[in-house]
Amino acid sequence: MTERMPALFLSHGAPPLVDDARWVAQLERLAAGLPRPEQILVVSAHWEAAPLTVGATDSRVPLTYDFGGFDEKYYRTRYASPGAPDLADRVAALAPDDQPVHRDETRRLDHGAYVPLTVMYPEADIPTLQVSMPTLEPEALFDLGRRLAELRDEGVLIIGSGFTTHGLPFLTDPRPDAPAPTWSQEFDAWAHERFAAGDLEGLLRFRTEAPGMPYAHPRIEHFAPLFVTLGAATDPEQPPAEPIDGFWIGLAKRSIVAA
């Protein structure tokens, strides 16, 4: 009998995070404590497309290097995990009849997906599929997570990949160990309190209730994947584990594991 997989929200960061020894160690420990997935399904902050779109299932399709201005070595990263055509079919089957799923066989994993996976599963031997965020509305993404939740019983690890704070325009110190701005600290502390309280409704209202807004999220695409994760949780009001916290270049790395 397949063990039910958890659902994760990961603060994935930019490609240089793989050079941050603390983040790598935290993510390796997180992965070591999980049952090994049969397949992986990722919703990343870096792919917004409506309707829900399933990415390439052919591992020969190149990764999506959706960033600019970094060292050339980050554009040479490879992560040729097997495609997951059966999982793509299952995702399509779980969609409502009036919400057909599109397919894009030209778009492979973006850095929101492959950067953390290169640390968690460096052998790249687990079939992995990325799907788009069809909307940024928290309630709709929560509903999407609810539809996908049964995949957890089939050995699928569901990952929402974003960042707990992502106010890049308001950062003034690019050092990895730079002090976190007040808005980032306040939003992160609020998120921790909401997780600990199992306050789903508060999280859904983060745009109007969280301190540090709108600086913490000038756009909300990096917090939005959290709601797919919470929707896929067995009980979204049960406090999740928070195995990763702290800051990188002032941004909150808080990540959760939902049972």
UniProtKB/TrEMBL annotation:
Residue span, Extradiol ring-cleavage dioxygenase class III enzyme subunit B domain: 28-235
InterPro entries named among the record's database cross-references: Extradiol_dOase_DODA, Xdiol_dOase_suB
Cofactor(s) needed: Zn(2+)
Gene3D superfamilies: LigB-like
GO molecular function term, any single one: oxidoreductase activity, acting on single donors with incorporation of molecular oxygen, incorporation of two atoms of oxygen
PANTHER family per the UniProt record, alphabetical: 4,5-DOPA DIOXYGENASE EXTRADIOL-LIKE PROTEIN
Name under which the protein is recorded: Extradiol ring-cleavage dioxygenase class III protein subunit B
Species per Swiss-Prot/TrEMBL record: Tsukamurella paurometabola (strain ATCC 8368 / DSM 20162 / CCUG 35730 / CIP 100753 / JCM 10117 / KCTC 9821 / NBRC 16120 / NCIMB 702349 / NCTC 13040) (Corynebacterium paurometabolum)
